[in-house]
Amino acid sequence: MAWEWSHTNEAYANAYDNLHNSPRAWLAIAFAEWKAKEIEDSEDDEREPFGAEYETELAFAATLATDTLADSIWDKASEQRTCDNGGFNAWVCPYGCHTVPFDCSETAE
User: Fold this and answer.
1) Is 78 exposed, middle or buried (0-12, 13-18, 19+ CB in 10 A)?
2) How far lies 103's CA from each of 14, 25, 33, 77, in Å?
3) pTM for this predicted structure
4) Could you give the CA distance from residue 91 to residue 82 in angstroms, rounded to a whole number?
5) What's the pLDDT tens digit per position in 22-76?
């Protein structure tokens, strides 16, 4: 089950900082998931998640600066505004498999 974000500005700032302090490889994966999901959603036919679009976007993510990856992910996550049940972790991918805590003392999962 997922919830919609409903937190303080401090919690959003913590999540933003936690995202920006996440490992680059982890950010690249989350970035590729967002981009591949956009492509999949724009196509008329049914596509498998994590197909060729994902691989292409993962390779593209490797060319981007770490801050660019994190900023792009934050923009998408802020639009989706989804968190885990209980509101402890913000989803930073379209599927909820990559999250960052709203608490400043945690690390990315």
Assistant:
1) middle
2) 6, 22, 24, 16
3) 0.86
4) 6
5) 999 999 999 999 998 887 777 655 666 667 888 999 999 999 999 999 999 999 9
